[in-house]
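Field reference: sequence -> structure
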Amino acid sequence: MVADGSIQGLRIDHIDGLFDPREYCERLQGAAASCNPAREEGIYIVVEKILARYEALPDWPIAGMTARVHQPSGGAFRRRAGRAPFCAPLRQRDRAA
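Structure field:
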C-alpha cells in the first residue's frame, strides 16, 4: 500500500514494547524509500507514546507522537492506603455483574 501510494503515513501503537523502536522506525523509513525513491522526506510516521513529565520524545525518524504527557495518579498503587479507595468501586461493579 505504501508502494502504490494508497497510504501516505503510518501510526505505530505501543512502540515501547519493541526491543529497538529506533531501528524499527529506521527500517520502516528505508522500506518506504525503496518503494518510492522519489519520496524525499520519507513516510509520515507517528507513534503512540506516553511521556512522563521528565521525558522528551526520543530522536527517532518520525513526524511526532499521538499520545499526551502522562499525569501520574498520585501514587495510588505505590502507597497501600491509596489502593483501597481506588479499587472499591471496581469491586462493587464486579460483584453486581
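Note: The first strand starts at residue 9 and ends at 12.
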